[in-house]
Design a protein that fits this description.
The complex is a heterodimer of chains A (about 260) and B (about 270). Chain A is an alpha/beta fold and about 260 residues long. Chain A is built from ten helices and ten strands. A six-stranded mixed beta sheet of chain A has the order 6-7-8-3-9-10, with helices on both faces. In chain A, strands 2-1-4-5 form a four-stranded antiparallel beta sheet, with helices on one face. Chain B has a single domain, classed as MetI-like fold. The C terminus of chain B is likely disordered. The chains are: A alpha/beta (about 260), B mainly alpha (about 270).
Chain lengths: ~260, ~270
Amino acid sequence: MSTEIRSQTTAGADARRRGVAVATRDIHLAFGSNRVLRGVDVDVDAATTACVIGPSGSGKSTFLRVVNRLLEPDAGDVLLDGRSVLTDNPDVLRQRVGMVFQHFNLFPHKTVRANVTLGLTRLKGLSKDEAAERAHHHLERVGLAHKADVRPGNLSGGQQQRVAIARALAMEPEVMLFDEATSALDPELVKGVLATMADLAAEGMTMLVVTHEMGFARSVAQQVLFMDHGRVVESGSPDQVFDAPRTERLQRFLSQVL
Amino acid sequence: MDILTTLKDTFLDLDAMLAALPELLRVGLPNTLILALFSALIGTVLGMALAVCGLSHRRWLRWPARVFTDVFRGLPAAVTILLIGVGLAPVGLKIWGPNPYPLGILALSLIASAYIGEIFRSGIQSVDQGQLEAARALGFSRPSGMRLVVIPQGVRRVLPALVNQFIALIKESSLVYFLGLLASQRDLFRIGQDAAANTGNQSALLLAGLFYLVITVPLTHVVNAIDRRLREGRRADGADGADGGGGADGDRPGGEALPASFALSQEAR
């Protein structure tokens, strides 16, 4: 009986893991007189990965927060699966769009399992057992099922970030956003997190990834977007962007980071 | 020698103490505890409401909370107790009859809530903003995220300050004597003081003081214990110790490479 349930939930999760297309149209956002986003257009096809690169302060993280409406744009539109989501209930929208943060932002007062099940029981209406079952499945996928009863403070940074990924995936999102997910990690821990992200991309998740990991962008992304001063200055396939940058600004940026 | 004897007779007259002891135990102690417990309970609930309102983005919630806090923190406790206990006495008489306790508890609660509200507010504000952001990113509304994720963490951090406030409240409860207490309504202080006044001997009052110490000193040790736990270990977060060995290298959630103020507040756990 229990194995049957598990295979069903797993099948359901896998079916839904195929992401939907994300697009933004002419996104503008200002904090006071500081115009952080000045017309951002992005098209990410379903089940592809787009990496956003660019100097700090270029608006990358802000842009990511507009996609799931943690920040509301002053103008422009956000499209999921071809449909505008700006008039949707933002709390419902955010269940469809998972997000992983630079500083993990796990809930330190809850166990690893409770971090994953919180949204499942409170928002998805799963029973305690169903939620625990699904949490186990997603923690197993990131290789941390054996840490379910531990508090996040007892994990390494890399483990914490993988729990954060499991927490987001357990909500079965249609799109995943990664905001410099490896920037706060010790170098030896970066690899494991990037591998988890690459697996997810290979499984067909639609991913929008703000990153400084140029190697990841080159090997995993179908599209690389270079942002500067609140705009997408240049975009294209990884080969185009990294090997044949057209703009002087991108050339200068690449010469500094590569 | 004379002076020492006089002092001993004034403060350490065992007969005077024994004479006052039954009343202190039977009447004074329960009354003081009732006053302190009820005011602590009501003050904590009100204080949480004040903290949440004080942190609200809505001006019509924030402003009343701030004004309330300023007033009841700024007034001497004696003034508040008299204003409410005497001023509202006619109303109280209709509802409760000639019992000064409800109004005394109300006054003490209002004073405590102003302080407790500020304690909660500082605790909640010290929680990294990424926590609410993460909750919202999962699909929680802002109020739900505050309730489920931010406030529980904030409260944990200010438990020592909260217990300190309870200690202050136990001491302040003696001020209800302003409201005029019947014999059966007297608290520890009043009984000690009455006995001292009647006999011209301070021993009963000293004994009353000892009663206060018996309540408050253990509480100060509770504060210290909580404080130590918060300072030293990740167990402060309620970790069950199942895996206490790992991650002693400062790998805390959200703790590293944050703006200094956030990092510090995280460390303060």
